[in-house]
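Curious: why these numbers?
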Amino acid sequence: MNGVSSIKETLVLARQYLDGAIQETDVKTLGNRLPGATIGPIGEIYGHTIAGEDWAFNELIQGKELILKTGGWAAKLSLEDGKEPDWNAVAQDHMAELQAYGKAVNQATDAFLDGLTDADLDKAIDFFGRNEAMGWVISDTVLVHMSFHAGEIASLKGVMGLKGLPW
């Protein structure tokens, strides 16, 4: 197995965990902020995770505009220009559209990965003033990030008495 194949396979797994964690989550559960918790509600975590993949692969790595902007998703999600998205409200009010935005981001990411070679993974990316290899940036900002948030969503559902993951 090579580096690009490993990233693609791990990304499939991370997406499966995220999709599994969010399925069968009703609007009330999406917006439930647990008393005394320092973690945000599930809707906020889910939207942030999808937007994080968009940011990492499009803006950070490729220097392109976000799918959120170029694909008309900001309007579909009722986001206001210049304002930080309220992912919790978006998830509660526009979950189908948020999931469709996620699929559009996934497709763009997959197309980008399909064009990479293992040598590309060594390309230096400016990561907040540090030069990091693209492979490291992908692992940190998408693979680990998505997996952690899928676990948070599953855990939050579990402490609410719900099934966190379907298996």
User: Anything to note?
Assistant: Residues 56 and 62 are 8 Å apart (CA to CA). The first strand starts at residue 124 and ends at 127. Strands lie at 124-127, 130-133. The two ends are 27 Å apart (CA to CA).
